[in-house]
Write a structure and sequence with these properties.
By secondary structure, the protein is of the alpha/beta class. It contains 8 helices and 9 strands. The protein has a 5-stranded parallel β-sheet. It has a 4-stranded parallel β-sheet with strand order 2-1-3-4. About 30% of the residues are buried.
Length: about 200
């Protein structure tokens, strides 16, 4: 079988949220780009890049190669501006602030919060009622994500949560918002935090 061709959107979470190609992966060049691409993208995949500016293509290709991802077959010239000018379909992910999240949690008991940080980060302090599935496990644990309810996805600062929304959308899970600023902004705003005692069981 021929390797899959994927769209890799390397812009910031906010830019991705404002408008992206349906089905694209969001992994921003601004963060730990190579290591996260290596985690979520199959090494055989052929990649078409979407960049904030065309001049970033060499940097993106070089950093992908470090993660063993060498099948970049092209990039979208003129980026999303060109795509939108051509009248092609776009998808969006609503970006909300931590204050918005706090208000929405009070107003809507159905709202779910999905924290995609590592278990140790989650245990050290998270949004009350947030469910933890770390980003690197997300595609293996899709059945644990509730469908048909609005879900706010959060991480430490908004980078991994944007990746998570893009992965979930690829699997048809749609009612998602990305929490800008993440748990760091939540704590800084003085909002309530839950911590977990480290479990001592053998599991």
């Amino acid at each position: 079988t021929k390797p899959a061709t994927i769209i890799l959107d390397t812009r910031s979470p906010a830019e991705f949220g404002q408008g992206h190609i349906p089905g694209a992966y969001s992994v921003g060049l601004g963060g730990q780009f190579a290591s996260w691409c290596g985690t979520v993208i199959d090494a055989q995949s052929r990649m078409i890049l979407v960049l904030a500016e065309d001049g970033q293509v060499d940097e993106a290709v070089t950093r992908l190669a470090r993660a063993g991802l060498e099948n970049v077959i092209g990039y979208l010239v003129g980026g999303m501006t060109a795509w939108q000018k051509a009248g092609l379909k776009i998808d969006t992910v609503e970006q909300i602030t931590v204050e918005d999240l706090a208000k929405q949690l009070q107003a809507n008991p159905e709202l779910r919060v999905l924290d995609v940080r590592r278990p140790g980060e989650y245990a050290a302090g998270h949004v009350p009622q947030a469910k933890n599935i770390s980003l690197s496990e997300l595609e293996q644990q899709l059945e644990a994500v509730e469908r048909g309810v609005k879900t706010a996805v959060i991480c430490a600062g908004g980078y991994r949560s944007s990746m998570a929304t893009s992965l979930l959308k690829r699997h048809g899970i749609g009612e998602l918002v990305n929490v800008a600023g993440g748990t760091a902004a939540w704590i800084k705003a003085g909002l309530p935090v839950q911590t977990e005692a480290a479990s001592c069981s053998a599991s």
